[in-house]
Amino acid sequence: MKQIRIAIDGPASSGKSTVAKIVANHLGYTYLDTGAMYRCATYLALKYHISLSQVDDLLKLIDQYPIAFGKAADGSQTVSLGGEDVTLAIRQNDVTNHVSAVSALAQVREKLVDEQRRIAADGAIIMDGRDIGTVVLPDAELKIFLVASVEERAERRFKENQAKGIAANFEQLKQEIAERDYKDSHREVSPLKPADDAITFDTTGVSIDGVVDFISEKAKKIIDMP
C-alpha cells in the first residue's frame, strides 16, 4: 500500500487538528501537530521572558527543552518540553495571543521546519499547520486547505476553551481570530495561503464527520492508485 504525506492547512480553528487526528487514526498514519511545536516555542519565550529580538536565546531554549509527542491513557495526544507535560499550558490564552509573532521569526520556523521534514521523510503522515503544503511539504501527495467563517471558528474555540476550563469571551475570541488571520496571512515568512495544487474546503456548517469523510475519500483515491 502506498504511504503518502497529507498536508492540511488553514486559519485558526478551521478544524485542522481535529480532523487530522481522526483521519490519521483511520489510515493508521502518524499525526504531527506543527501548531503545537510553535506553541511550545512561544511558551518557552513567555516563561523565560525572551523578547522577539532575542532569537538566538530562544533557539537555545528549544534545543535545551526538546519537543516530544506522546499519548495519554484516553488516546489523546500529549505534548512535552524537556520531559515536562505542557499539553494544557500551551493552549492558554497568553500563548495563543503571542504564537503568531513567534511563528513569524524566520530562524524559529527554519529550525522547526527542518524537524518536521525529518519526521515526514518516510511518508504515512498527516501534518497540519499554516504552511505545510506551501513550505514544509511542497511535494505532499495530498494538500487540503480548510476555511470557515470567523463566527463559526470563534464558536468552536469558545466551546473548546470551556471544555478545558480556560476562561473565554466569545466576542473577544472573534476579534482575536480575525487579528490572527491578518497576521498569519500578511507575515513575510511563510504566509498563510493555499498551495497552488491544494483542495480548498469550506467547513462552515459541515460536521466533523463530513470533513473527515471528504479528506479520507481524497486520500484513499491516491493511496489506491497503481
Task: Please characterize this protein's 3D structure.
It is a single chain. With 226 residues, the chain is α/β, with parallel strands linked by helices. It has helices at residues 16-27, 34-47, 55-64, 93-103, 106-120, 132-136, 150-164, 170-186, 208-223; strands at 5-9, 30-33, 67-71, 77-81, 84-85, 125-129, 142-147, 199-202. It is 51% helix and 16% strand. A hairpin with a 5-residue loop joins strand 3 (67-71) and strand 4 (77-81). It is globular, with a radius of gyration of 17 Å.
SSE layout and pairing:
Elements (H helix, E strand, L loop, with lengths): L4 E5 L6 H12 L2 E4 H14 L7 H10 L2 E5 L5 E5 L2 E2 L7 H11 L2 H15 L4 E5 L2 H5 L5 E6 L2 H15 L5 H17 L12 E4 L5 H16 L3
Helix pairs in contact: 1-9, 2-4, 2-5, 7-8
Give me a quick take on this structure:
This protein has 226 residues and is α/β, with parallel strands linked by helices.
SS-derived structural category: alpha/beta
Shape: globular
What is the makeup of the main sheet?
5 strands, parallel
Question: Using only CA atoms, what is the Rg?
Answer: 17 Å
**Spans of at least 5 consecutive residues with low confidence:** none
The level of helicity is 40-55%
Count of DSSP helices? 9
Quaternary organisation of the protein chains = single chain
**Number of β-strand runs:** 8
Q: What portion of residues belong to β-strands? A: 15-25%
Cα separation of the termini: 9 Å
What is the overall pLDDT average? 92
Order of helices and strands: EHEHHEEEHHEHEHHEH
Strand order of the largest sheet: 2-6-1-7-8
